[in-house]
Amino acid sequence: MIKLWGRKNSINVQKVIWALEELGMPYDRIDAGMAFGVNNTPEFKIMNPNGLVPVIEHEGLILWESHAIVRYLATLDSQGILMPQALPTRADADRWMEWYSTTLWPNLRPVFWNLVRTAPEARDMALVNTSLQHLTNNFKIVDQLLASRDFLAGSRFSMADIPMGVAAFRWFEMPIDRPDLAHLNAWYQRLSERPAFKQHCQIPLT
Ligand SMILES: N[C@@H](CCC(=O)N[C@@H](CS)C(=O)NCC(=O)O)C(=O)O
């Protein structure tokens, strides 16, 4: 049984929960992080010296970093439900996960933290506005990609759609001005039909 440490409202924990649910892998989740604590204890820091969630334990392996965990789970699954089998498609999926981490998330994070987790009087709106401009350009790139394919790595849902999906939920839920991006909208509607996304990721932002 896979053990997962992490609170349900964390964007990075949600990626792991979504992957586990898509793969039908049983797991035991332990609340950790923010109000739950746990992640700052010495025992937890032996598992992850960063003191961050998510962390999983499976057959003696302790693993942290949400994308490494999603890739591990996708590879563990012999049916290749999330891991494209053709190498070019796999590389494509991997590329969008990397791009999310290096490019899109650094723009989404300040917008999310200021608008969702910071009191109005303490918000850095200059940072929000600059980051939002970059974030909008990022989602335009995703929109262009989705003009010619149903999912990020081609015609099938894959691991690549998981990080972008949880980011897109925040993009659509946050009180921000958004351009109408038809292909992004259509892809988001396709994701919204997936029970695991609906149940575990489309939950109130806190
Ligand atoms: N790059 C890491 C980032 C992990 C991370 O920043 N986790 C946040 C939650 S999204 C965390 O643990 N924050 C401290 C807390 O929840 O107390 C990953 O993708 O797993």
Percent range for helical residues? 40-55%
Bound molecules: glutathione
Largest sheet: 4 strands, mixed
CATH class of the largest domain: Mainly Alpha
> How would you spell out the order of helices and strands?
EHEHEEHHHHHH
Count, helices: 8
With strands numbered from the N-terminus, the spatial order across the biggest sheet is 2-1-3-4
What number of structural domains do the residues give? Answer: 2
Counted beta strands: 4
Indicate the low-confidence ranges by residue numbers.
none
The CATH level-2 architecture of the largest domain is identified as Up-down Bundle
CATH topology of the largest domain: Glutathione S-transferase Yfyf (Class Pi), Chain A, domain 2
> Measured on Cα atoms, how large is the radius of gyration?
17 Å
What attributes does this structure have?
206 residues, alpha+beta, Glutaredoxin, Glutathione S-transferase Yfyf (Class Pi), Chain A, domain 2, 2 domains, four-stranded mixed beta sheet, globular, binds glutathione
Question: Strands, helices and their partners?
Answer:
Blueprint lengths: L1 E4 L5 H13 L3 E4 L11 H6 L7 E4 L2 E4 L1 H11 L10 H31 L7 H21 L15 H13 L8 H11 L2 H6 L6
Parallel strand pairs: 1-2
Antiparallel strand pairs: 1-3, 3-4
Helix pairs in contact: 1-3, 1-6, 4-5, 4-6, 5-7
Bound molecules: glutathione (GSH).
